[in-house]
Amino acid sequence: MAQVSLAIGGRDYVVSCADGEEKRLESLGVLIDESLREGADPGALSETRALLYAALFLADKLKDIGEAPAPEAPTAEGDERSAKALENLAERVEAFATRLEKESASS
After folding, report:
1. What is the pLDDT of residues 33-58, one digit of tens each?
2. Cβ(14)–Cβ(36) below 8 Å
3. Cα-Cα-Cα-Cα dihedral of 59, 63, 65, 70, to 10°?
4. Which of 36, 64, 89, 92 is deepest in the core (most CB within 10 A)?
5. Region label for 83, one of left (φ > 0), alpha (ψ between -120 and 50) or beta (otherwise)
6. Half-sphere exposure of residue 83, counting CA atoms within 13 Å on the CB side?
7. How far apart are CA 56 and CA 50, in angstroms?
8. How many CB atoms lie within 10 A of CB 47?
9. Rama region for 8: left / alpha / beta (φ>0; ψ in -120 to 50; rest)
10. Of the candidates 61, 56, 60, which has an alpha carbon nearest to the alpha carbon of residue 40?
11. What number of other Cβ atoms are within 10 A of residue 32's Cβ?
12. Is the pTM above the cut of 0.70?
């Protein structure tokens, strides 16, 4: 197991994790530390209460993400339009190539 040192709220914590998960854990620690900084004045709260508010803040963000509507899947109509546009573009490129070949041959 690997060990990672996290600086959260002005304190260092050593946490164990699976090998290869160090960078992910470090980034999560940064996220928690940033959440603490966004909250109330850290000097006005106990460490436990400050961490509680950071956890609530992150849980709120996570809940918002989970409740956000999923992006709409592309429609068949949109796919058909895209296919037609590509077809038209291919025809124009072919016509241009043919014209260039004719001009090259006559030069």
Report:
1. 998 888 766 567 788 888 888 898 89
2. no
3. 160
4. 36
5. alpha
6. 7
7. 10
8. 13
9. beta
10. 56
11. 18
12. no
* CB atoms closer than 10 angstroms to residue 21: 14
Q: Write down the pLDDT at residue 32.
A: 92
Is 3 or 70 the better-scoring residue by pLDDT? 3
Residue with tokens 């573009």: 89
Which residue type does 70 have? A
Report CA-CA distances (Å) from 93 to 100, 105, 107.
10, 18, 21
Contact between 31 and 58 (Cβ < 8 Å): yes
What are the tens digits of pLDDT across the range 16-33? Answer: 999 999 999 999 999 999
Which residue bears the tokens 């509507």?
Answer: 69
Residue 92: is its pLDDT beyond 90?
A: no
